[in-house]
Amino acid sequence: MSRELTIGNGSLQVMFDAAYKLRDIYFPYIGKENHTAGHVFRFGVFTEG
User: Fold this and answer.
1) Which pLDDT band holds residue 43 (cuts at 50, 70, 90)?
2) Which residues of 1-49 form beta strands (DSSP E)?
3) Neighbours of 18 (CB within 10 A)
4) What percent of the chain has pLDDT over 90?
5) Can you tell me the distance from the alpha carbon of 29 to that of 12, in angstroms, rounded to the nearest whole number?
6) CB of 25 closer than 8 Å to CB of 35
7) What is the dihedral of CA 4, 10, 11, 12, to 10 degrees?
8) Distance CA 35, CA 41 (A)
9) pTM, 2 dp
10) CA–CA distance from 47 to each of 15, 22, 44 (Å)?
11) Distance CA 49, CA 18 (A)
């Protein structure tokens, strides 16, 4: 399954869909257990100024 954005470091992988909603989190073994359990999470960054 492909995702729009994938970020990982070898033991943690985070995947986002085209709307930049968090779809998959794999830790500590990439490809084993998906910690989102199929749910979608919104992700954002907030700054003042």
Assistant:
1) confident
2) 5-8, 13-16, 21-26, 41-42
3) 9
4) 59
5) 7
6) yes
7) -20
8) 11
9) 0.75
10) 23, 20, 10
11) 27
Contact 10/2 with Cβ under 8 angstroms? Answer: no
The token duo for 39 is: 């749910």
Looking at this protein, which amino acid is placed at residue 18? A
Omega within 30 of 0 (cis) for the link into 28: yes
The C-alpha atoms of residue 15 and residue 11 are separated, in whole angstroms, by 13
The two tokens of residue 6 are 């994938």
- The residue behind tokens 């960054």 is 45
What is the mean predicted confidence (pLDDT) over 6-30? 93
* Tens digits of residue pLDDT in 24-38: 999 999 989 999 988
